[in-house]
Amino acid sequence: MKSRNGSAWTYEKAGVPHLKGDPTYNRQLTKLLSRSRIPGVMGRAGGFSSLFDLGKIRTRDPILVSTTDGVGTKLEIAKLIGKHDTVGIDLVAMCVNDLITTGARPLFFLDYFATGKFKPAVVKEVLKGIIRGCQESGCALVGGETAIMPGFYGDSKYDLAGFAVGVVERRRVIDGSRVKAGNRLIGLASSGLHSNGFSLVRKLFSSRELKGALGRRFLEPTKIYVKPVLEVLKKIPVCAVANITGGSFYDNLPRVLPEGLGAWVDSSSWPRPEIFDGIQARGNISNFEMFRTFNMGIGMVLILDSKFVKLAQKILSRFKISTWNIGEVVKGKEVVIQ
């Protein structure tokens, strides 16, 4: 069977270029990867797998920690606007912010980019964001996969997945077991919606609205909390860390609380960003649904003894992160937001 133009079929005519054999693409990729290289990364880019020497990080009794996540339908906003240089930051942030909830330091990151048609400019912009996210979190991009699947994804569609690996000393693992009633909740400011709730947002606002200034505001990348939180952990015995992602307060706080404990959150203790008021008004959304879907201005929560609250806030302020004492751990099983 011949192709539409009468010549013999090849894989490239089916829509899949041979990127692994393209020296120009490989040089560009190697140059990008080198920007995030850290001690421990071995070999060069382009192999079938990546090597990392744990001996270079000098951690006693190391425990490896791994996470994976994606960006979700926020990618649709990026496509509408034609701006792809921030979603890579989101991809890294969603993984490394999960990683540090255990007290782990990110070491390396891998990405998966899947699309219907290879568009070098788009891929390059996404990779730039991933590199920036890795640099901001102190980890290395050591490899990944670009999957081109014509007919499976539309030509303008792509999806992202990320994978992070970190390390923490066994004695420093944070697992929530030390949480007790009376511990305080310190809320760290988010940079917007982060990467959650966009399936609802896209139902509320038209494509025309999302192509403008509103859409650009929604594209604000997820805040990466790695360096500030690790600095707090050096000086304070934090009992638990909760990443406020999908499920927001109601689903994420219970994940770090021992059996028999709940949380009370004072929603008036921090200024709610206007963007959430606009979403709530447009969709006539209940407060419960808002606090179950969106971060409402709080991207991460540290749970610690009340005597360490001021010190923690002082440390975080050095990183220009706004924080608030937003509630406490209580006896019970529920998360109560007032």
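the 2nd protein, sequnce then structure:
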Amino acid sequence: MIRFEQVGKVYPDGTSAVDGLTFEVEKGELVTLVGPSGCGKTTTMMMVNRLIEPTSGRILVDGEDISTVDPVRLRRRIGYVIQQVGLFPHRTVLDNTATVPALVGWKRDRARRRAAELLDLVGLDPKTYGPRYPSQLSGGERQRVGVARALAADPPVLLMDEPFGAVDPVVRERLQNEFLRLQSTVRKTVLLVTHDIEEAVRMGDRIAVYGKGRIEQYDRPGAVLGTPATPYVAQFVGADRGLKRLSVTAIEPEDLEEPPTAHVGEPARAAAERLTGLGARWAVVLNEEGDLHGWVAADALHGAGGGGTVGDLARRMDAWVPVGAPLKQAFSEMLQHDAGWVAVLDGARFLGVLTPAKLHEALRRSVDADARGVGRGEVSFDSVADA
């Protein structure tokens, strides 16, 4: 959808902002441009809508050389979200959101209906927020309106310049989650500029790590964290890149252990004898459909004196995550609940448990898979659990 071919930008004073940029952003892909201040990432983004003109090379959007397109027409089909939002203070939220559709000739009623749809999509009730003015909104709400306005004319490309940088960390995480949810629905081609490697890793399908005017590495977040291409990239992503990688490595069924299980209606005495035979101190408790019900300690089963069922003695399972969640989420659940493992579910169905040893193994396998250019299932090694 967006292709840079040997693009450079040199200012009249001789300053080179970017040099020889060549990369491509696929349709529906979210690419983060990350690097320190002055590295050329914002210049790169602003050349896409010709707010800055390149001095060499060419940029194509959907196969069309943008240097041949009228800049105003080009900008009206590219959404643009900036850190300070840039809402018109004298216009209502609804009219702010309808700005671009009105500019491209939509009738007022159609533009306002579209604006209301987009406000609802970004989590703002149009009946409540539509009549308000920007000064009546919080920073996070203004940022949502900015995203809605950028999407209002249904542009295929969205440019975002540090869009979540002007709000506090809690609101920032909420906005990031909201935008990722939104992106899963609308699937725009997005260039997002940030100086925060954590945000780049969390948001991007791919990351372009900038040095001075050049891309040092362009790859998936896991590959950038696991196999930095240069010493500069390794230094930029940080010595804790292994921890950062937890947030982009998904839990897969192959990562799980199968612990002893018991069923809610099973007699406590029978379950106790079975756990004793297995040398197990606890079991996951399932219902008749195989869904997670809780867990039970072997001591509790023995202490029941032979009466009752497993369901009578089961305890609530607080530490659980869905399959496909990042390893970081599982690790957080272990720490929050002081648990030695977390249950992994597919909907309500129990799949297995993730232990610290298995978490470490999954992380190692992910790193090795990226280094070898193969799938995680093709990587094998002696695990900590087998030692």
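Residues 169-186 form the longest helix (18 residues). The first strand starts at residue 2 and ends at 10.
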